[in-house]
Amino acid sequence: MGFDKIDLNILRELQQDSSLTNQELADRVGLSASPCLRRVKALEESGVIDRSVTLLDQKKLGLKLTAFLQISMDRHTPDRFSVFEEQVDCFPEVRNCNLVTGQNCDYLLEVVVEDMEKYHDFLLGKLTRIPGVTGVQSSFLLRSVKESTSLPLEHLM
């Protein structure tokens, strides 16, 4: 799909604030409301706009501990990975789960919980009970230097 300058501006604006009204978005990108809405609909129908979400402040919700986990599996088989992924997908504490290569682990997880006690409960009560998990190495977030949900778009210009 080809993108022009207006499409890219629409995507930039929506990545920053998806709650903009169509009129607000149209004003920001220099269009009238109807053409702006048509472009947004086309971007949605093409799958470029996947979904719109509301971002919550985890600290205000009492979720003060973020852990990054390196998970090692006993076997590298599709069925073993499938079982792990299905179970992890059911854990609300897991924000991200990625199968990786080039590490001394198989998966990288980002986990958000209230405190160290809840992390301990998650680790021993859920994660290490998944068949095939042989190792978990945890790192804890001290301070977030940059947080972004936006994707770079410069390469499309």
Short description:
With 157 residues, the protein is an alpha+beta fold.
Number of helices, where a helix is a run of at least 4 consecutive DSSP H or I residues: 5
N/C terminus separation: 13 Å
CATH architecture assignment name of the largest domain:
2-Layer Sandwich
How many distinct folded domains? 2
The CATH topology of the largest domain comes to: Alpha-Beta Plaits
Q: Helix and strand string, N-terminal first?
A: HHHEHEEHE
Q: What value does the average pLDDT take? A: 96
Structural class: alpha+beta
Number of strands: 4
| Strand order in the largest sheet | 2-3-1-4
Overall 3D shape: elongated
At the first level of CATH, the class of the largest domain is: Alpha Beta
Ranges with pLDDT <50 over ≥5 residues?
none
Our Rg estimate from Cα atoms comes to: 20 Å
CATH superfamily of the largest domain: Lrp/AsnC effector binding domain/regulation of amino acid metabolism (RAM) domain
Residue share in helix = 25-40%
Biggest sheet record: 4 strands, antiparallel
Q: Beta-sheet strand percentage?
A: 15-25%
GO biological process, one term: regulation of DNA-templated transcription
Pfam families: AsnC_trans_reg (PF01037), HTH_24 (PF13412)
GO molecular function: sequence-specific DNA binding
Protein name: Transcriptional regulator, AsnC family
